[in-house]
Amino acid sequence: MAEQISLDRRTLVGVANDEDGEVSGDTESRFEQAGNRLSARYSGGPIVEGHLVGTIDGAQWDIRYVQINEIGESAGGHSVGEASFLEDGRIRVEDT
């Protein structure tokens, strides 16, 4: 089993996204974690407000998110990904 990664009180910044996504380098997500339950609020770039909830098991996360952008459009979805530590101690999460 992979090492349990905690995102509690971490801030993650968007780095890359698919062409339809609105998350950018200006998007910051502030996480809270209790056991394997995750939640975060995020905003930045075209995203005015976003929320996500889900679980993390070891390094694998499974989340649902909803957001609203600066022109009032809402969007939501599902993400399954893997968290890993970078050499400098930061955490990277990538969709799998």
Largest sheet: 7 strands, antiparallel
Question: Given the helix and strand composition, which structural class is it?
Answer: mainly beta
Report the span from N to C terminus.
Answer: 17 Å
Helix content: under 10%
Mean pLDDT: 92
Number of strands: 7
In short:
The chain has 96 residues and is mainly beta. It is 0% helix and 58% strand. Strands 1-2-3-4-5-6-7 form a seven-stranded antiparallel β-sheet, with no helix packed on it.
Question: Could you explain how this protein is built, in words?
Answer:
This protein is an all-beta fold and 96 residues long. It has one domain. Helix content is 0%, strand content 58%. It is globular, with a radius of gyration of 13 Å. This is Photosystem reaction center subunit H. Pfam families: Avidin_like (PF26421).
